[in-house]
Fold:
Amino acid sequence: MSNISNAIYGFTIGDAFGVPVEFLERDTYQIEEMIGYGSWDVPAATWSDDSAMMFITMNHLINEDNLNQLKKAFCDWAYRGYWTFNDEPAFDVGITIREVINRWERIGLHELAKSDEFSNGNGALMRILPISLWAYGKKIQGEELFLFVKEYAELTHGHIRSTLCCYHYTLVVHQLLEGSSIADSIRYANEALTKMLRQFPGEAQYFERLFIIGDFPRDDIASSGYVIDTLEAVYWSLLNSSNYYEAIHKAVHLGKDTDTIGALTGGLAGLAYDTLNIPNHWLNMLPKQSEIQELICKFEKVLK
Ligand SMILES: [Mg+2]
Structure:
């Protein structure tokens, strides 16, 4: 598999592995297999909003659609089954995303996402991977990269903290693509974000833990849907693992927002390790596997 293919499948598998145990408390379950009908009434290996919004964004980038077309595509996903696993309306739209999609649908696509401090769920972060890959392929760097990431993050999450988390994740993606280790990639992103935080001094305190997250014991890792908690859980899982499966297994066993944390961990682990060391049948279990494969091929082509 190529880097890009590994990242997209790594993300999708991490999502699907975490779906059946989403919301559960830590250490109340143990899974080694793709299972169905846990937290959601869906079959084994069902991927969720995280992967769906990633696929839709990939399609948007491939076609060079404008942002209104992307917003419309998200409405079609939530209400009309566009890029859902079963062509039915999405089964799991997050609160902040649901709220803005509702307004796009009822009022108009010019409606802006909420930007208060309490609207900082991980819904922008969960769909940023294709943006990060695209920016690397198109050599978008520095301040331009920050603004590019911000434009996409703000579609659903208007607060700067969400953008800063998306920017950090993007920098890690870029360093992994450069061939750096996970630890070095995160260190690089920490340094770049520290510089960026000078423009947003009020936000610096929220990132202090993130910069040393690998050293924390598991008990100190929150794994909620709050964007900072999610990013901390993702990097903690990666920094305390030495292969793909171990990383997503650790991520999904932290509890609470297991699918998004599994997905974001899996995307980076897919880039960091040459092989997705999972049971062979897992990839074939994914709904719409052939459509996903076709989408990845198109995405790779436009990035060459
Ligand atoms: Mg999800």
Notes: Residues 160-177 form the longest helix (18 residues). The radius of gyration is 17 Å. The chain has one domain: 3-303. The pocket of magnesium ion is lined by residues 48-50, 92, 259-260 (CB under 6 Å).
